[in-house]
Amino acid sequence: MNILYLGCYDQPFGQSPRSFDYAEYLAEAGHRVIFLSNSYDNYNLNNVSIPFLKLWCEDPQTKNLLGKYIRLKTPKYSNSFGRLINMFINGICILVFGIFCFFKNQKFDVIIGPSVPTFTSFSGVLLSKIFSCCFCFEIRDIWPDALVDIGVITKKNIIYILLKFMEKYIYNNADAIFSTLPFAKKHIDENSSKKIPFYYLPNGVKINSKINFSYNKIELKKIFSFVYIGGFGIDHDINSMLMAAKLLEEWGYKFKFDLYGSGINYQKYKNILDQISTESIEIHGLVPKKEVISILKKYHCSIAAITNSPSYRFGINLNKLTSYMTAGRPIIFSSSAPNNPIKESSCGFSCESENIYELAKLMERIINLSFEERYNLGLNGFNYLINNLSISKLGNKMEKSIYELI
After folding, report:
1. In whole angstroms, what is the distance from residue 251 CA to residue 231 CA?
2. What residues are paired with 69 via a beta bridge?
3. Burial tier of 54 (Cβ tally within 10 Å: 0-12, 13-18, 19+)
4. What b-and-e string marks burial along 8-47, b requiring 16 or more CB atoms within 10 Å of the CB?
5. H/E element, 89
6. What share of the chain is helix, strand, coil (3-state, %, to 5)?
7. 294 and 324 in contact (C-beta within 8 Å)?
8. What DSSP letter does each residue of 139-161 carry, written as one string?
9. Distance separating alpha carbons of residues 406 and 334, to the nearest angstrom
10. Which secondary-structure segment (H or E) carries 284?
């Protein structure tokens, strides 16, 4: 198959590699894949400089990989308006790249595009009509409704109206849906005039010889330690984690809790931490993707918490949870979403969102477990990952679903 895989923020070897991992799998399976993503990495860790008179170039990191990985010239940004411009230009560049390929007599059997940003897949649908090929819509977040849920825009906002028009247009012209959200189908049916094949494809992990289970006393910190590695965004419940840790400290427990990440609320919680008296909690900056697992393995237990936001009503598929499972750490999870990977895998304990007391009790509970009990929880998560979330298995499912379309 000839596949055009559209991306924006999922750069090769970047912080969020989902689309890149699937594209690489398809290329290794023998398909001719072209993968597009931005030149500008919003984490500022993986930028590519493109010559002045060019709109794109091949990613220099990917010369030894199968497939072709193109970075599109997109501007840097430091605020929401700048990000909107970045998204719009991504969509324009994709359209121009596709038309360029058309005039070079390049053929595509399928185009795959993401739900974020909507501009990207809108251009993808237009290109699918030019190439008379299938279009598959890859959903990670339900835009633009998720932007309303977290209070970024209202339904009367012109941006919402424009993005909603694009979303419905994409649904009505898509040949299949690949969704990380298990309960998104109802929303899709309500916003589409046709029935679209729906495939649940959660975020996966590339399994290789370097990934192995380990949970031993030598690699762990001496004092009991908790870790969070993830975002500091609006829907990330950093507040409950901090307050639960503070409560645990007040109960007389000695422990260490380190939080790593970045996001719109990072400085806010750094300031809050400065105002509360604690020796147990520290907040650190962003961890490069390649270092995440090695850092997680230094801690006894990992924690994640999300707010009780309506944006999670379609389900969750958090990258941080797969990282925690890869590292073989037991997991404490605070969530009210309709699906719960921690319960499904029996790799830790969970409570409802924004329940500080119950979150603190779970932290207390895991401290009081034996080493063997924590070891088994970590092993459960690792085995669940291997059996259910490997890119080879999920990529094979994607490949088969595409073959059914063409």
Report:
1. 28
2. 35
3. exposed
4. bbbbbbbbbbbbbbbbbbbbeeebbbbbbbbbbbbeeebe
5. helix 80-103
6. 40, 20, 40
7. no
8. ESS-TTHHHHHTTS--TTSHHHH
9. 42
10. strand 281-284
Angle at 154 between CA 153 and CA 158, to 5 degrees: 85
Q: Which residue has the tokens 């930028």?
A: 47
Domain 2-204+390-405, architecture per CATH: 3-Layer(aba) Sandwich (3.40)
pLDDT tens for the chain, 406 residues long, are: 999 999 988 888 888 888 999 999 999 999 999 999 999 987 767 789 998 889 999 999 898 999 999 999 999 988 889 999 999 999 999 999 999 999 999 999 999 999 999 999 999 999 999 999 999 999 999 999 999 998 999 999 999 999 999 999 999 999 999 999 999 999 999 999 999 999 999 999 988 766 778 887 766 778 999 999 999 999 999 999 999 999 999 999 999 999 999 999 999 999 999 888 888 999 999 999 889 999 999 999 999 999 999 999 999 988 899 999 999 999 999 999 999 999 999 999 999 999 999 999 999 999 999 999 999 999 999 999 999 999 999 999 999 999 999 8
Partners of 5 in beta bridges? 35, 112
**Shared fold status for 2-204+390-405 and 225-388:** yes
Phi and psi at 325, nearest 5°, equal -65, -40
What are the extents of the domains in the chain? Answer: 2-204+390-405, 225-388
CATH superfamily, region 225-388: Glycogen Phosphorylase B; (3.40.50.2000)
How far, in Å, CA of 45 to CA of 195, rounded?
40
Q: How many residues does the chain have?
A: 406
How many Å is the Cα radius of gyration of the chain?
22
